[in-house]
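Private note to self, pasted from the team thread so I don't lose it. Backbone tokens:
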């Protein structure tokens, strides 16, 4: 079958060829003597008219190429050079340019600078950073820098009312700029958490500038289960000892952390850290907390009521005693409350309607509760004496002060604020605080009197407190608690399996 197809195809080709020869017979007859066949018979070379024409045409094309191509190459070379003049980099070859063509390099024009117009760079300043050590005074720091007490006084005067130089604390930092001859040129310090101050001395004049700092509070959530101690559980939860003490301070009126803790008690805390310009500055505050002690649940939420910040339970009850049982850090009780005792100076029996707390002179005395200063002055027998009215029926009294704090009659004070300092004015044989707790102007024993509970937030404040504080924070505490329960159940299943 294949041979038949090939035969038919060959016959068709031969028929097409014969038809073409018949149609163009004149052309083939005139050129029958042209042959490139190797079998053609050898005969003497004879040039016909057609061959002369072909040879002449070929020669003409050769001459034309010799004349035109060099001229075209020259024109292209000029154009390439003109195009390349602005270019500086000659390392990259162009494919359309001959290799013997050199590119012109034009240097960039650099403007000349007038030396008088060039301002010199300011000299690099070297500030020496000093961190306050425990027990170190500001005078010690200045002396260590080779400075005098005159320099210290100049800084304090120039800083104005800044409290930084009056109450320095360990860890606090100061920076000093001192020249080669120990002349003070500048002091840099944290004016407060949100700003850093720079004090410069130029030509005998002081200039104080401040710069704001980027202060951030970063919140953390911790959950702990007590299996041995509160500190151990808190450490496992990632809390620092300082934050544990703050947790104990928040719940100190509800939980006795020495005697009441049990294995199995647990807590959840939302707290924050303070960062300044991205660097850790200090421990922050507890924002919200839940403590389960012996099966009983206690809660605490940080809330600003007016200008006062405190902690409240979910019901809006302040987490503090309405009164401090003892308003001074004392060394011993030198005299108890008594209906009759021998007076150490008068030498006769006399009622002692208060408690005497012996303490070094100058020890701060604190207001036992919120109230208004009713009396401030000298009282026979009591010496320097202060009376604070807390409500319609309760007042407290403080005697034998060495001096008063900055307060006046009619001034409102907060619980814990300093109202004076321990002394021995009036009838006293040694430095101590005479403290009285009065109900309807009758003295009661401060150590045994039933202290009233603090008043909860008013209705309007309570609604705001529950909406803005309790709602969001309680959801966070419950989420941690639920996740913890799920984890414990999963652990129990794995242990059981």
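Design output:
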């Amino acid at each position: 079958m294949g041979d038949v197809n090939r035969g038919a195809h060959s016959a068709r080709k031969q028929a097409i060829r014969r038809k073409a020869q018949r149609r163009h017979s004149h052309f083939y007859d005139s050129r029958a003597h042209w042959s490139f066949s190797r079998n053609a018979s050898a005969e003497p070379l004879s040039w016909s008219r057609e061959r002369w024409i072909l040879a002449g045409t070929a020669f003409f094309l050769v001459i034309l190429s010799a004349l035109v191509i060099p001229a075209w190459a020259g024109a292209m070379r000029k154009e390439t050079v003109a195009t390349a003049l602005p270019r500086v980099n000659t390392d990259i070859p162009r494919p359309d340019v001959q290799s013997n063509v050199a590119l012109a390099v034009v240097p960039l024009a650099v403007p000349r600078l007038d030396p008088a117009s060039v301002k010199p760079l300011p000299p690099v300043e070297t500030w020496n950073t000093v961190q306050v050590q425990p027990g170190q005074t500001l005078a010690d720091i200045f002396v260590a820098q080779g400075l005098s007490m005159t320099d210290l006084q100049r800084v304090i005067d120039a800083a104005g009312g800044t409290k930084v130089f009056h109450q320095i604390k360990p860890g606090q930092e100061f920076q000093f700029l001192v020249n080669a001859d120990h002349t003070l040129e500048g002091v840099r310090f944290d004016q407060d958490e949100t700003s850093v101050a720079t004090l410069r001395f130029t030509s005998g004049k002081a200039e104080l500038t401040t710069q704001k700092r980027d202060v951030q509070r970063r919140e953390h959530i911790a959950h702990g289960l007590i299996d041995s101690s509160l500190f151990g559980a808190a450490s496992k939860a990632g809390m620092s000892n300082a934050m544990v003490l703050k947790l104990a301070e928040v719940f100190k009126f509800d939980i006795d952390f020495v005697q009441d803790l049990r294995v199995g008690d647990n807590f959840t805390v939302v707290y924050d850290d303070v960062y300044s310009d991205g660097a850790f500055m200090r421990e922050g505050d507890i924002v919200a907390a839940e403590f389960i002690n012996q099966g009983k649940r206690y809660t605490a939420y940080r809330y600003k009521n007016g200008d006062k910040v405190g902690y409240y339970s979910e019901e809006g009850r302040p987490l503090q005693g309405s009164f401090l049982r003892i308003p001074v850090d004392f060394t011993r009780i030198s005299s108890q409350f008594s209906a009759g005792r021998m007076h150490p100076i008068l030498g006769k029996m006399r009622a002692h309607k208060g408690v005497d707390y012996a303490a070094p002179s100058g020890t701060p005395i604190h207001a036992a509760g919120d109230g208004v200063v009713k009396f401030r002055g000298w009282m026979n027998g009591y010496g320097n004496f202060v009376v604070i009215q807390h409500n319609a029926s309760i007042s407290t009294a403080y005697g034998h002060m060495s001096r008063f704090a900055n307060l006046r009659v009619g001034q409102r004070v907060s619980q814990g604020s300093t109202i004076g300092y321990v002394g021995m004015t009036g009838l006293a044989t040694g430095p101590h605080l005479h403290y009285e707790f009065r109900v309807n102007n009758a003295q009661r024993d401060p150590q045994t009197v039933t202290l009233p509970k603090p008043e909860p937030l008013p209705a309007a404040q309570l609604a705001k407190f529950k909406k803005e504080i309790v709602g969001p924070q309680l959801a966070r505490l419950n989420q941690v608690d639920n996740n913890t329960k799920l984890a414990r159940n999963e652990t129990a299943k794995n242990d059981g399996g």
